[in-house]
Write a structure and sequence with these properties.
This protein is of the alpha/beta class. The protein has helices spanning 4-17, 31-36, 47-59, 91-103, 116-120, 124-129, 131-143, 148-161, 177-188, 201-204, 208-212, 251-259, 275-282, 315-323, 330-333, 342-348, and strands spanning 74-77, 146-147, 192-200, 219-229, 236-245, 266-269, 289-294, 326-329.
Protein backbone atom coordinates (compact mmCIF):
# COMPACT_ATOMS: atom_id res chain seq x y z
CA UNK A 1 0.00 0.00 0.00
CA UNK A 2 1.42 3.36 -1.00
CA UNK A 3 2.87 5.50 1.79
CA UNK A 4 2.94 2.59 4.27
CA UNK A 5 6.73 2.16 4.05
CA UNK A 6 7.25 5.91 4.26
CA UNK A 7 4.88 6.07 7.20
CA UNK A 8 6.75 3.35 9.10
CA UNK A 9 10.13 4.96 8.49
CA UNK A 10 8.70 8.34 9.47
CA UNK A 11 7.44 7.15 12.81
CA UNK A 12 10.60 5.22 13.60
CA UNK A 13 12.53 8.43 13.04
CA UNK A 14 9.95 10.50 14.87
CA UNK A 15 9.73 8.29 17.94
CA UNK A 16 13.51 8.14 18.00
CA UNK A 17 13.62 11.93 18.13
CA UNK A 18 11.24 11.93 21.09
CA UNK A 19 13.42 9.75 23.31
CA UNK A 20 14.91 11.28 26.39
CA UNK A 21 18.26 13.11 26.10
CA UNK A 22 19.92 10.27 27.99
CA UNK A 23 18.97 7.72 25.33
CA UNK A 24 18.91 9.84 22.19
CA UNK A 25 20.53 13.09 21.15
CA UNK A 26 19.20 14.94 18.13
CA UNK A 27 20.73 18.30 17.30
CA UNK A 28 19.17 19.06 13.93
CA UNK A 29 15.90 18.02 12.33
CA UNK A 30 16.01 18.80 8.61
CA UNK A 31 13.09 20.05 6.54
CA UNK A 32 13.09 16.77 4.61
CA UNK A 33 12.75 14.85 7.86
CA UNK A 34 9.79 16.99 8.88
CA UNK A 35 8.13 16.18 5.54
CA UNK A 36 8.93 12.49 5.99
CA UNK A 37 7.31 12.55 9.41
CA UNK A 38 3.99 13.69 7.96
CA UNK A 39 1.60 10.76 8.51
CA UNK A 40 -1.10 12.24 6.25
CA UNK A 41 0.79 13.62 3.23
CA UNK A 42 -2.26 13.80 0.95
CA UNK A 43 -4.09 16.01 3.45
CA UNK A 44 -3.74 19.78 3.40
CA UNK A 45 -2.71 21.35 6.69
CA UNK A 46 -6.26 22.36 7.55
CA UNK A 47 -8.45 21.90 10.60
CA UNK A 48 -9.38 18.27 9.83
CA UNK A 49 -5.80 17.03 9.58
CA UNK A 50 -4.75 18.83 12.74
CA UNK A 51 -7.77 17.51 14.63
CA UNK A 52 -6.96 13.91 13.67
CA UNK A 53 -3.29 14.15 14.63
CA UNK A 54 -4.05 15.99 17.87
CA UNK A 55 -6.59 13.34 18.83
CA UNK A 56 -4.28 10.40 18.13
CA UNK A 57 -1.38 12.10 19.91
CA UNK A 58 -3.58 12.75 22.93
CA UNK A 59 -5.10 9.30 23.38
CA UNK A 60 -1.81 7.44 22.81
CA UNK A 61 0.05 9.48 25.46
CA UNK A 62 0.47 7.06 28.38
CA UNK A 63 0.93 9.94 30.80
CA UNK A 64 -2.16 11.81 29.62
CA UNK A 65 -5.62 11.81 31.16
CA UNK A 66 -7.17 10.74 27.84
CA UNK A 67 -4.96 7.69 27.27
CA UNK A 68 -6.87 4.78 25.69
CA UNK A 69 -5.58 1.22 26.20
CA UNK A 70 -4.66 -0.57 22.99
CA UNK A 71 -7.48 -3.12 23.29
CA UNK A 72 -10.04 -0.30 23.25
CA UNK A 73 -8.63 1.53 20.21
CA UNK A 74 -11.41 0.49 17.85
CA UNK A 75 -11.95 2.49 14.65
CA UNK A 76 -14.94 1.87 12.38
CA UNK A 77 -15.25 3.10 8.80
CA UNK A 78 -18.19 3.13 6.46
CA UNK A 79 -17.18 2.01 2.97
CA UNK A 80 -19.37 3.56 0.24
CA UNK A 81 -18.57 7.26 0.00
CA UNK A 82 -16.11 7.07 2.91
CA UNK A 83 -13.31 4.79 1.70
CA UNK A 84 -14.25 4.72 -1.99
CA UNK A 85 -16.69 6.58 -4.22
CA UNK A 86 -20.40 5.79 -4.50
CA UNK A 87 -21.49 7.74 -7.56
CA UNK A 88 -23.25 7.67 -9.99
CA UNK A 89 -24.64 4.52 -8.30
CA UNK A 90 -23.42 2.37 -5.45
CA UNK A 91 -20.73 0.09 -6.80
CA UNK A 92 -22.43 -3.04 -5.49
CA UNK A 93 -25.52 -2.05 -7.47
CA UNK A 94 -23.29 -1.76 -10.55
CA UNK A 95 -22.12 -5.30 -9.78
CA UNK A 96 -25.73 -6.50 -9.52
CA UNK A 97 -26.60 -4.86 -12.85
CA UNK A 98 -23.62 -6.46 -14.59
CA UNK A 99 -24.50 -9.81 -13.04
CA UNK A 100 -28.11 -9.61 -14.27
CA UNK A 101 -26.87 -8.80 -17.78
CA UNK A 102 -24.57 -11.80 -17.67
CA UNK A 103 -27.46 -14.06 -16.61
CA UNK A 104 -29.99 -12.55 -19.06
CA UNK A 105 -29.42 -15.07 -21.92
CA UNK A 106 -30.60 -17.82 -19.55
CA UNK A 107 -33.79 -15.86 -18.75
CA UNK A 108 -35.65 -14.73 -21.89
CA UNK A 109 -38.65 -13.84 -19.69
CA UNK A 110 -36.65 -10.90 -18.33
CA UNK A 111 -36.98 -9.09 -21.67
CA UNK A 112 -40.53 -8.10 -20.72
CA UNK A 113 -40.32 -8.15 -16.91
CA UNK A 114 -39.27 -5.22 -14.76
CA UNK A 115 -36.84 -4.38 -13.30
CA UNK A 116 -34.84 -6.80 -15.46
CA UNK A 117 -36.08 -5.24 -18.70
CA UNK A 118 -34.73 -1.88 -17.53
CA UNK A 119 -31.32 -3.40 -16.80
CA UNK A 120 -31.09 -5.13 -20.17
CA UNK A 121 -32.07 -1.92 -21.99
CA UNK A 122 -29.85 0.32 -19.81
CA UNK A 123 -32.97 2.24 -18.80
CA UNK A 124 -31.86 3.71 -15.49
CA UNK A 125 -34.97 5.89 -15.17
CA UNK A 126 -37.25 2.84 -15.16
CA UNK A 127 -34.87 0.97 -12.89
CA UNK A 128 -34.99 3.75 -10.31
CA UNK A 129 -38.79 3.88 -10.69
CA UNK A 130 -38.98 0.22 -9.70
CA UNK A 131 -38.10 1.38 -6.20
CA UNK A 132 -36.78 -0.65 -3.31
CA UNK A 133 -38.79 -3.71 -4.33
CA UNK A 134 -37.25 -3.74 -7.80
CA UNK A 135 -33.73 -3.21 -6.55
CA UNK A 136 -34.20 -6.00 -4.02
CA UNK A 137 -35.25 -8.35 -6.84
CA UNK A 138 -32.01 -7.53 -8.65
CA UNK A 139 -29.94 -8.18 -5.56
CA UNK A 140 -31.62 -11.50 -4.83
CA UNK A 141 -31.17 -12.75 -8.40
CA UNK A 142 -27.57 -11.58 -8.65
CA UNK A 143 -26.40 -12.45 -5.14
CA UNK A 144 -28.24 -15.66 -4.18
CA UNK A 145 -28.71 -19.18 -5.51
CA UNK A 146 -25.04 -20.18 -5.31
CA UNK A 147 -22.43 -21.20 -2.78
CA UNK A 148 -20.34 -18.69 -0.90
CA UNK A 149 -17.23 -19.92 -2.72
CA UNK A 150 -18.86 -19.38 -6.12
CA UNK A 151 -20.02 -15.90 -5.12
CA UNK A 152 -16.52 -14.94 -3.99
CA UNK A 153 -15.08 -16.03 -7.37
CA UNK A 154 -17.68 -13.95 -9.23
CA UNK A 155 -16.94 -10.85 -7.13
CA UNK A 156 -13.17 -11.23 -7.60
CA UNK A 157 -13.58 -11.53 -11.36
CA UNK A 158 -15.86 -8.49 -11.51
CA UNK A 159 -13.43 -6.39 -9.46
CA UNK A 160 -10.66 -7.31 -11.90
CA UNK A 161 -12.59 -6.59 -15.09
CA UNK A 162 -15.41 -4.07 -14.49
CA UNK A 163 -14.70 -0.40 -15.22
CA UNK A 164 -16.21 2.72 -13.70
CA UNK A 165 -18.23 4.66 -16.32
CA UNK A 166 -16.63 8.04 -15.60
CA UNK A 167 -13.00 7.23 -14.85
CA UNK A 168 -12.59 4.00 -16.86
CA UNK A 169 -10.77 2.49 -13.89
CA UNK A 170 -11.42 -0.67 -11.93
CA UNK A 171 -13.82 0.09 -9.09
CA UNK A 172 -11.26 -0.79 -6.43
CA UNK A 173 -8.96 1.88 -7.89
CA UNK A 174 -11.50 4.51 -6.83
CA UNK A 175 -10.40 4.31 -3.22
CA UNK A 176 -9.52 7.54 -1.45
CA UNK A 177 -5.78 7.98 -0.98
CA UNK A 178 -6.18 10.28 2.07
CA UNK A 179 -8.32 7.65 3.80
CA UNK A 180 -5.73 4.95 3.09
CA UNK A 181 -3.21 7.15 4.86
CA UNK A 182 -5.61 7.62 7.76
CA UNK A 183 -6.08 3.85 8.08
CA UNK A 184 -2.31 3.34 8.06
CA UNK A 185 -1.82 6.11 10.62
CA UNK A 186 -4.38 4.65 13.01
CA UNK A 187 -3.02 1.13 12.68
CA UNK A 188 0.52 2.39 13.29
CA UNK A 189 -0.84 3.78 16.54
CA UNK A 190 -2.28 0.36 17.38
CA UNK A 191 -5.90 0.95 16.44
CA UNK A 192 -7.86 -1.99 15.10
CA UNK A 193 -9.66 -0.82 11.96
CA UNK A 194 -13.03 -2.21 10.89
CA UNK A 195 -15.33 -1.63 7.94
CA UNK A 196 -18.95 -1.19 9.06
CA UNK A 197 -20.96 -0.79 5.88
CA UNK A 198 -24.47 -1.06 4.51
CA UNK A 199 -22.89 -2.96 1.63
CA UNK A 200 -22.90 -6.74 1.49
CA UNK A 201 -20.34 -8.36 3.75
CA UNK A 202 -19.54 -11.08 1.20
CA UNK A 203 -19.30 -8.54 -1.59
CA UNK A 204 -16.58 -6.67 0.34
CA UNK A 205 -14.59 -9.53 1.85
CA UNK A 206 -12.90 -10.72 -1.39
CA UNK A 207 -11.06 -7.43 -2.05
CA UNK A 208 -10.91 -5.24 1.09
CA UNK A 209 -7.64 -6.63 2.44
CA UNK A 210 -5.75 -5.76 -0.73
CA UNK A 211 -7.46 -2.39 -1.09
CA UNK A 212 -7.42 -1.18 2.52
CA UNK A 213 -5.24 -3.55 4.52
CA UNK A 214 -8.34 -4.56 6.51
CA UNK A 215 -8.69 -8.35 6.99
CA UNK A 216 -11.94 -9.92 5.87
CA UNK A 217 -12.78 -10.88 9.46
CA UNK A 218 -12.83 -7.16 10.34
CA UNK A 219 -15.74 -6.40 8.01
CA UNK A 220 -19.28 -5.85 9.30
CA UNK A 221 -21.91 -5.54 6.60
CA UNK A 222 -25.37 -6.44 5.39
CA UNK A 223 -25.98 -10.10 4.66
CA UNK A 224 -28.45 -12.47 3.10
CA UNK A 225 -29.52 -15.72 4.71
CA UNK A 226 -27.42 -18.84 4.20
CA UNK A 227 -27.49 -22.51 5.04
CA UNK A 228 -24.97 -25.31 5.45
CA UNK A 229 -25.15 -28.29 3.07
CA UNK A 230 -22.96 -31.34 3.73
CA UNK A 231 -23.23 -31.97 -0.03
CA UNK A 232 -22.31 -35.68 0.09
CA UNK A 233 -19.02 -35.08 1.85
CA UNK A 234 -18.16 -31.80 0.10
CA UNK A 235 -19.57 -29.23 2.52
CA UNK A 236 -20.75 -25.88 1.16
CA UNK A 237 -22.62 -22.84 2.43
CA UNK A 238 -25.50 -21.82 0.17
CA UNK A 239 -26.64 -18.23 -0.26
CA UNK A 240 -30.43 -17.92 -0.02
CA UNK A 241 -32.77 -15.33 -1.54
CA UNK A 242 -33.66 -13.86 1.83
CA UNK A 243 -32.34 -10.86 3.77
CA UNK A 244 -30.58 -11.71 7.03
CA UNK A 245 -29.31 -8.35 8.36
CA UNK A 246 -29.18 -4.75 7.11
CA UNK A 247 -26.13 -2.96 8.46
CA UNK A 248 -27.25 0.60 7.87
CA UNK A 249 -28.68 3.39 10.03
CA UNK A 250 -29.78 1.91 13.35
CA UNK A 251 -28.32 -1.40 12.23
CA UNK A 252 -24.74 -0.13 12.42
CA UNK A 253 -24.50 0.15 16.24
CA UNK A 254 -26.24 -3.23 16.46
CA UNK A 255 -23.76 -4.76 14.02
CA UNK A 256 -20.84 -3.24 15.93
CA UNK A 257 -22.15 -4.60 19.23
CA UNK A 258 -22.91 -8.03 17.76
CA UNK A 259 -19.75 -8.61 15.75
CA UNK A 260 -17.07 -6.42 17.35
CA UNK A 261 -18.18 -6.35 20.98
CA UNK A 262 -16.45 -3.06 21.81
CA UNK A 263 -17.70 0.47 21.32
CA UNK A 264 -15.54 2.40 18.82
CA UNK A 265 -13.50 5.42 19.86
CA UNK A 266 -13.08 6.56 16.24
CA UNK A 267 -15.77 6.44 13.56
CA UNK A 268 -15.88 7.76 10.00
CA UNK A 269 -18.80 7.98 7.61
CA UNK A 270 -20.25 10.22 4.92
CA UNK A 271 -24.03 9.98 5.07
CA UNK A 272 -27.10 9.91 7.28
CA UNK A 273 -26.86 6.12 7.12
CA UNK A 274 -23.70 6.44 9.21
CA UNK A 275 -25.10 8.90 11.74
CA UNK A 276 -26.10 6.31 14.34
CA UNK A 277 -22.61 4.78 14.22
CA UNK A 278 -21.09 8.18 14.98
CA UNK A 279 -23.64 8.81 17.73
CA UNK A 280 -22.77 5.43 19.27
CA UNK A 281 -19.07 6.27 19.15
CA UNK A 282 -19.74 9.71 20.64
CA UNK A 283 -21.28 8.02 23.69
CA UNK A 284 -18.03 6.22 24.55
CA UNK A 285 -16.64 7.04 28.00
CA UNK A 286 -13.23 7.35 26.37
CA UNK A 287 -12.43 10.45 24.35
CA UNK A 288 -13.80 9.77 20.88
CA UNK A 289 -13.52 11.13 17.37
CA UNK A 290 -16.30 11.46 14.80
CA UNK A 291 -15.58 12.23 11.14
CA UNK A 292 -17.84 12.86 8.16
CA UNK A 293 -16.37 12.88 4.65
CA UNK A 294 -18.19 15.76 2.91
CA UNK A 295 -18.28 15.39 -0.87
CA UNK A 296 -17.57 18.90 -2.14
CA UNK A 297 -15.35 18.35 -5.19
CA UNK A 298 -17.34 18.13 -8.43
CA UNK A 299 -14.21 18.33 -10.57
CA UNK A 300 -12.12 15.55 -9.05
CA UNK A 301 -14.98 13.45 -7.63
CA UNK A 302 -18.59 14.64 -6.96
CA UNK A 303 -20.32 17.35 -4.96
CA UNK A 304 -23.46 16.30 -3.08
CA UNK A 305 -25.00 16.11 0.39
CA UNK A 306 -28.63 17.07 1.14
CA UNK A 307 -31.22 15.43 -1.09
CA UNK A 308 -28.77 13.15 -2.89
CA UNK A 309 -30.12 9.78 -4.06
CA UNK A 310 -26.77 8.24 -3.11
CA UNK A 311 -25.11 9.05 0.19
CA UNK A 312 -27.49 11.75 1.44
CA UNK A 313 -25.91 13.82 4.21
CA UNK A 314 -28.65 15.98 5.70
CA UNK A 315 -29.43 15.36 9.36
CA UNK A 316 -25.85 14.26 9.92
CA UNK A 317 -24.50 17.46 8.43
CA UNK A 318 -26.47 19.55 10.92
CA UNK A 319 -25.57 17.31 13.85
CA UNK A 320 -21.88 17.32 12.95
CA UNK A 321 -21.83 21.12 13.00
CA UNK A 322 -23.80 21.29 16.26
CA UNK A 323 -21.59 18.77 18.04
CA UNK A 324 -18.36 20.05 16.47
CA UNK A 325 -17.53 16.74 14.86
CA UNK A 326 -14.89 16.82 12.13
CA UNK A 327 -16.16 17.55 8.62
CA UNK A 328 -13.64 16.69 5.93
CA UNK A 329 -14.12 19.04 2.99
CA UNK A 330 -12.78 16.95 0.10
CA UNK A 331 -12.07 19.97 -2.08
CA UNK A 332 -10.19 21.92 0.58
CA UNK A 333 -8.73 19.21 2.79
CA UNK A 334 -7.41 16.69 0.28
CA UNK A 335 -4.51 17.33 -2.10
CA UNK A 336 -5.48 14.26 -4.10
CA UNK A 337 -8.62 12.12 -4.16
CA UNK A 338 -7.63 8.80 -5.71
CA UNK A 339 -4.47 6.77 -5.41
CA UNK A 340 -4.09 6.63 -9.19
CA UNK A 341 -3.76 10.45 -9.23
CA UNK A 342 -0.56 10.32 -7.18
CA UNK A 343 1.70 9.91 -10.21
CA UNK A 344 0.49 13.20 -11.66
CA UNK A 345 1.16 14.93 -8.33
CA UNK A 346 4.69 13.55 -8.15
CA UNK A 347 5.41 14.63 -11.74
CA UNK A 348 4.32 18.18 -10.90
CA UNK A 349 6.65 18.18 -7.91
Amino acid sequence: MKNLFLLCISFLLFTGCLKSPESQQVEIVSDSLIVAMDPLPSWNDKTAKKAIINYVTDITNKEGVNFIPIEDRIATFDNDGTLWSEQPIYFQLAFAIDRVKALAPEHPEWETKQPFKAVIENDMKSLVASGEKGLMELLMVSHAGMTTDDFEKIVKEWIKTAKHPRFDKAYNELVFQPMLELLDYLRFNEFKTYIVSGGGIEFMRPWVEEAYGIPKDQVVGSSIASEFDYNEGNPVIKRLAKINFIDDGNGKPIGIHRFIGRKPVFAAGNSDGDLQMLQWTDSNTYKSFQLFVHHTDADREWAYDRGSSMGELNIGLDEAKAKKWTLVDMKKDWKVIYTFQLDAIYKED
